[in-house]
Design brief:
Largest interface: A-B, 77 and 48 residues
Helix content of chain B: 25-40%
Largest sheet of chain B: 2 strands, antiparallel
CATH architecture of the largest domain in chain A: Alpha-Beta Complex
Shape of chain A: globular
Distance between the termini of chain B: 33 Å
Oligomer: heterodimer
Strand order of the largest sheet of chain B: 1-2
Distance between the termini of chain A: 11 Å
Structural class of chain B: mainly alpha
Structural class of chain A: alpha/beta
CATH superfamily of the largest domain in chain A: Amidase signature (AS) domain
Helix content of chain A: 25-40%
Order of helices and strands of chain B: HHHEE
Strand content of chain A: 5-15%
Number of helices of chain A: 15
Radius of gyration of chain A: 21 Å
Shape of chain B: flat
Number of strands of chain A: 13
Radius of gyration of chain B: 23 Å
């Protein structure tokens, strides 16, 4: 990204040329990949022309003014269709920008389009989109991951230099791992969710995806920080791009939780992760075995909480103020018919499970119990971070699976096995590529840091990245 | 059926059967959690403990009415229109 910024600053390339390059690349690859739901060709070229004018007057809004970006389609963009990959919102145009969108626009970034996802971010493969599945750029017979599958695939295929996604149980990190890009789930509360369509507000975060650690850190610096319109972000500090320091691993205490290296973990994924750990040790880091035994309950806890919160959040889609309405004689039938027609199968499944979990006779046994187990998980993670600086694990148990392979919803949920803990405990975590399997599919490494330790995990990732071959990204 | 009614969600017979099956699978996961000894732990509703955030009670900017209504499936005289809710005279 620094190179693009230099070329723009020197006048060797214009924003219009950059946007055209992205649009060409999208036209070439999109028929196969389906990473986008909406490409705003006209709007992007208008924004690019404005950026070029600013540059001509030496009034660039930031070093990144004029660089294109893709935005996941559950993040509101004023006047630009925002569907959440749902039929219910197939023609919905928000009347305001999400805070993160406002912030990237303030830095001069050009929004080129809206990327595909599992409907309302419910899924781990982008197969549950009402707009078709997104294919993995490394093997189109395989999924790009999810729910931010479109945002990860768009970066991996070089359609855009970077993108925004959301992560509730792994939805940035898992597709980043499957597509061979870098993705960060920030600390809970570090980035405003205002204008982001909620899946589970106690877990949701917005974060960057990019081809390199530094690019992800730059995009994060543009969106982080307090926003009075999201009460959970009011204590959040902004984030400044650090000076990269390879010495950071000297004496760094790296926690290695044995539970993340056990049954179900694919051999090649384990080998790649262990090889990074060995290399860090050679560079002066201290590996420390730790136990996160409660991770055994992470998926069950996550599922209970996410279905409960989702069933409540999605009550707003009733066909009254926006979205699709199926007419009916009385209001309750109108709600039921509109929702029945507008929502896809996974959304209905989670609404049903969540309604059950929150119903008066089951609330205590399921929902409240899950909240208590969440406390257990949170305390265990806190104890771990009292002893170590970062925790390193594989991001996912396997590399990208085949489209249509996971038919059983419970099996699908297991692909978040290593990622959900960071959401439940609110800590930050990123995924970066650390090699490929025998089929050439990227393998992701997860680095978790304590609350608000994004700078540290970026620093460590930057050291790891130096020894790993880059597998994806934007080319001029 | 009762859950679908509570969720204001119209489902076909096949969907009800499917989600009933899923529910049974899902309840196994809930039962697993019930085995966990959480002692006297309180529940976590948010990952970071933030107190109630207050702001001064000041008049701010609102979205323009026309723009907001433009997204409504049915609007009339500055209102969102819905089917009749209360029985009785017009």
């Amino acid at each position: 990204m620094r190179r693009l910024a230099q070329l723009l600053a020197a006048g060797e390339i214009t924003s219009t040329e950059l946007v055209r390059r992205c649009l060409e690349r999208i036209k070439e690859t999109e028929p196969e990949l389906n990473a986008f739901i909406t490409v705003d060709e006209e709007g992007a070229l208008v924004q690019a022309a404005q950026s070029d004018e600013r540059r001509a007057r030496s009034q660039a809004l930031s070093p990144w003014d004029g660089i294109p970006l893709a935005v996941k389609d559950n993040i509101s963009t004023k006047g630009l269709r925002t569907t959440c990959a749902s039929r219910f919102l197939r023609s919905y145009r928000p009347v305001y920008d999400a805070t993160v969108v406002e912030r990237v626009k303030r830095a001069g970034l050009i929004i080129i389009g809206k990327t595909n996802l599992d409907e309302f971010a419910m899924g781990s493969s982008t197969e549950y989109s009402a707009f078709g599945v997104t294919k993995n750029p490394h093997d189109p017979a395989r999924v790009a991951g999810g729910s931010s599958g479109g945002s990860a695939a768009a970066v991996a295929a070089g359609q855009v230099p970077w993108s925004l996604g959301t992560d509730t149980g792994g939805s940035i990190r898992q597709p980043a791992a499957f597509c061979g890009v870098v993705g960060l789930k920030p600390t809970y509360g570090r980035v405003s969710r205002y204008g982001v369509v909620a899946l589970a507000p106690s877990l949701d975060q917005v974060g960057p995806l990019a081809a390199t650690v530094e690019d992800a850190a730059i995009l994060f610096s543009l969106i982080a920080g307090a926003d009075p319109r999201d009460a959970t972000s009011t204590e959040a500090r902004p984030f400044a791009l650090p000076a990269w320091d390879p010495q950071v691993v000297q004496g760094l205490k790296v926690g290695v939780p044995e539970e993340f290296f056990s049954s179900g973990l694919h051999g090649e994924v384990e080998a790649a992760a262990r090889s990074v750990l060995r290399s860090l040790e050679e560079q002066g880091a201290v590996l420390q075995p730790i136990s996160l035994a409660s991770n055994e309950y992470a998926i069950d806890t996550y599922l209970t909480l996410v279905t409960a919160e989702a069933s409540s959040c999605l009550a707003r889609f009733d066909g009254v103020r926006y979205g699709e309405r199926v007419p009916a004689g009385d209001v309750n039938t109108m709600f039921a018919k509109s929702r029945g027609a507008g929502f896809g199968p996974e959304v209905k499944r989670r609404i049903m499970l969540g309604t059950y979990v929150l119903s008066a006779s089951h609330y205590e046994a399921y929902y409240e119990q899950a909240q208590r187990v969440r406390t257990l998980i949170r305390q265990e993670v806190a104890r771990a971070f009292a002893e170590v600086d970062v925790i390193i694990t594989p991001t996912t148990p396997t590399t990208a699976f085949r489209i249509g392979e996971k038919r059983n919803p419970l099996e699908m949920y297991l692909s978040d096995l290593y990622t959900a803990t960071a959401n439940l405990s609110g800590v930050c975590a990123l995924s970066l590529p650390c090699g490929s399997d025998a089929r050439g599919l990227p393998i992701g490494l997860q680095i978790m840091g304590n609350h608000f330790q994004e700078e540290l995990i970026f620093q460590v990732a930057h050291v790891v990245e130096a020894n790993v071959e880059r597998v994806a990204g934007f080319e001029l | 059926m009762r859950m679908a009614r509570l969720a204001r969600l119209e489902l076909s017979e096949e969907e009800i059967e499917l989600y009933l099956r899923d529910l049974n699978g899902f309840l196994a996961s809930g039962r697993k959690l019930q085995q966990v000894d959480v002692g006297g732990l309180a529940g976590t509703s948010h990952a970071l403990t933030v107190g109630t955030v207050l702001r001064p009670d000041q008049v701010g900017e609102s979205l323009p009415q026309a723009a907001v209504l433009a997204e409504g499936p049915e609007v009339m005289d500055g209102y969102f229109k819905v089917p009749r809710i209360v029985e009785g005279q017009e």
